[in-house]
Amino acid sequence: MLENGTVVLDGQHQVQSSTSIQEQELRAVKHGDSFALFDTHGDVVGAEATPEGVYFRDTRQLSFWRLTICGTYPMLLGSALDDRVDALIVDLTNSSLTNRTCQRIPNDVLHFGRVKFLHEGSAFERLSVRNFDQCAHSFSIELTLGADFRDMFEVRGDKRERRGTHAQPRCTPDGVEYRYTGLDDIERRTAISFAPKPDFISDHKVRFDVSLAPGERKVFYTQIAFTDHENENPTRAYLEGYRALRRGRRDALVGRPTIVSSNTSFDAMMARSIADVTTLTTQTPQGPAAYAGIPWYCTLFGRDSLVTALEMLWYDPSLARGTLLRLAELQAVADDPAADAEPGKILHETRLNEMANTGEVPFRHYYGSVDSTPLFIFLAGEYFRRTGDRESIETLWPHLEAACAWIENAGDRDGDGFFEYGRRNQNGLRNQGWKDSHDAISHADGRLAEGPIALVEMQAYVYGAWRAMADISKARGDRAAAREWRAKAADLKQRFNATFFDEELGCYILALDGDKQPCRVVSSNAGHALLTGIATQRHAEAVAARLLEPDCFSGWGIRTLARGESRYNPISYHNGSIWPHDNALIAAGFSRYGLQDAVARVFGALFEATFYFDQQRFPELFCGFGRRHGRGPTLYPVACAPQAWASGAPMYMIQAALGLNVCAPDAVRFDKPSLPAFLSNLSLDGLACGEASVDLDVQQIGPATSVFVRRAGKNVKVAIGI
Fold first, then answer.
1. Could you give the 3-state DSSP secondary structure of residue 650?
2. Where is the Putative glycogen debranching enzyme N-terminal domain (predicted)?
């Protein structure tokens, strides 16, 4: 279908890249509204439809960057991310070379060290070169470069009939500049400057002629600016940017607890996850909020950002505060069918790119998610319980009331007391729960469900929202309102369990369609009903047992759709794949009902899967094939990595395993704590509670789990429920 000059599939704008991200082992760095995907050499060598490049505000500002030595590609020694600054560190050496004067340079005598990072709308690189030979060598360093200014949705696979205008590249003695004026009349620029100045420069080629004595080292700096700057010296700008990033990373750790365990592989996984959430966190005017993921979703997403903040809440509540305040600022205040916006609704997605600005895609400020709004209220309640921050809650209060009004009115589209979605813009998302691909919600015979659709998890999230409003109302002194919210929650819980639980399936159904016919499909969505407490104990135990059956549990995690369902496809996005955040939310639900053995199975499976992932990093999702001896999990070809709510999943798993709840001002509680089999000890130092903190050791001694308090701040009370 062609709409507004853009080819879309049923309004989905699905990722249609013809190249697997996984096979390339790309390296991602990010800062603010910029991110980059480099190959292991630190280069950008992809084609039009591949995601490599440096992006600013969802536009690819640098599409080609290739380093050669005397026309030959250097050999890779190592490539890793430095979490202290979120920089890519690459070590290279030379193969046997012949220089411009036909002199031979033996292999492995030159070392090339690259450091690449982003800061404040610029990309930086430092290239250091050292001669380890016993004699002098002269050689050339060449850079091939280009900027295509392709919109992210083009890179994802959308086709456009028209594009903007490229200006002729402009060369200067110390760099080159590319400019593009989009159909939105915004001029975008990529200004590249070098120090020292190159010996040769053209539109797409730069050369440095280098001579090194034995043991000599030289350093070259590059700044690639996407915003106007006053001809900064690249060397000074690099050093200032590096120091600022290092300082920012140190500051981000202040107030966070230190997590150390008996398992060094687990510690490495946790360090990677914490670093990735930190990388994806962007400082907004209202505070920190996590962008969803690189490369396809490096922007604020209501649902993803809220879930990430929930996963990280016990560890770092500042992320929840910033997320809530930012989404409150962007809350819909008017009715706009083109954006699926209605007063009180919480944002789904925001974009700053050309195609969003022109309306070719509807995502400039798009509100087409049904669950962001109740999750906003639910997180506010959890944040208040965790911190006791009355000031922020008072700021949020009118936004919470507006969100509740949307749920009760527009959120119940047919007036049956359950909560549904139905898009109003045919160019928008067909499905508006977290499984938002066009074929994610279906009946048992494979027929796609028609709306308005009442998802199982939406009812659970609304239940959590009503309970949150009750708790906040009580704290604000309005006991009558608190009773009303609790009554609403209790009524919804009773009707939900009577309608959504299917005794024959042994599980909650996926959804009710527009005719109120049940979608009798076994899916991971059912596990979300346990997260907020809407399930009965009997139903929770049944759901846990059902989701851990072999057709649902692959051995690496719980599938989004049970094997044997009509639309089951382990390579699909939502119909049989495995999502770490989905499993983490389910595990948190298991823990709420005291099902710690079920938590341990899910936690253990996901942890063991990380051994097979690049850098032990959880991807957005992976395929749902069953676990086999000698084989790791199967990667999904275009999964984001890092992805915020996937990176936050291990943190939520720890909370679930420990049954950990931190309640301001002074209570830390463990309900049926149980470490998974791969851990015998877990230490949490500096866990904040109100104005104080506590240091704890959790130890597994035979079948028993013990919690030892090594240090407790004034008045902090630690309790253990068995």
1. helix
2. 29-221
List Cβ neighbours of 409 (8 Å cut-off, separation of 6 or more): none
CA 17 remoteness from chain centre: 19
Q: Give the separation between CA 575 and CA 562, rounded to whole angstroms.
A: 8
One-letter amino acid identity for 575?
A: N
**3-class DSSP state of 395:** helix
What digits encode the pLDDT tens for the residues 660-711?
A: 999 999 999 999 999 999 999 999 999 999 889 999 999 988 888 999 999 9
Q: Tell me what the mean pLDDT of segment 43-55 comes to.
A: 87
Closest CA to 290 of 271, 273, 277, 303: 277
- CA 353, CA 160: separation in Å to the nearest integer? 14
Amino acid 13: pLDDT: 56
Both tokens assigned to 157: 């696979």
Residues 520 and 443: beta-carbon distance below 8 Å? yes
Alpha helices for 99-233 (secondary structure H): 152-156
d(CA 720, CA 722): 7
Count the alpha carbons within 13 Å of 706 in the hemisphere toward its beta carbon.
6
Q: Classify burial at 352, counting beta carbons within 10 Å of its beta carbon; exposed 0-12, middle 13-18, buried 19 or more.
A: middle
Q: What tokens were used for 510? A: 């996926």
CA–CA separation, 306 vs 311, rounded Å? 9
Find all residues with CB under 8 Å of 582, minimum gap 6, and list them.
Answer: 434, 524, 527, 558, 560
Q: What are residue 336's DSSP bridge partners?
A: 341
Q: What's the CA gap between 496 and 460, in Å, rounded?
A: 9
Q: Is 145 exposed, middle or buried (0-12, 13-18, 19+ CB in 10 A)?
A: buried
* 179 backbone dihedrals φ, ψ, rounded to 5°: -135, 145
State phi, psi for 92 to the nearest 5 degrees. -135, 160
pLDDT digits (tens, 9 = 90+) for 126-174: 999 999 999 999 999 999 999 999 999 999 888 888 999 999 999 999 9
Sign of the CA dihedral running 575, 580, 582, 588: positive
Produce one character per residue of 657-671: b if its CB has 16 or more CB atoms within 10 Å, e if not. bbbbbbbbebbbbbb
What DSSP state is assigned to residue 603? H
206, β-bridge pairs = 143, 201
Q: Which two tokens stand for residue 547?
A: 């989701």
What is the rounded CA–CA span in Å between residue 266 and residue 654? 11
CB atoms within 10 A of CB 230: 4
Strand partners, 258: 685
Q: Which residues contact 256 (CB under 8 A, 6 or more apart)?
A: 274, 315, 316, 686
CA distances to 480, 492, 539 from 487, in Å? 11, 9, 21
Question: Can you give 219-263 as a three-state secondary structure string?
Answer: EEEEEEECCCCCCCCHHHHHHHHHHHHHHHHHHHHCCCCEEEECC
Amino acid (one-letter) located at 692: A
Instruction: Take residue 145 and report the two structure tokens written for it.
Output: 């470069």
Q: How far apart are CA 589 and CA 560, in angstroms?
A: 16
Of 429, 115, 385, 410, nearest in space to 246 by CA: 115
Pairing mode, strands 667-671 and 717-721: parallel
Residue 25's pLDDT is: 80
63 contacts 44 by C-beta, under 8 angstroms: yes
* Residue pLDDT, tens place only, 422-461: 888 888 899 999 999 999 999 999 999 998 999 999 999 9
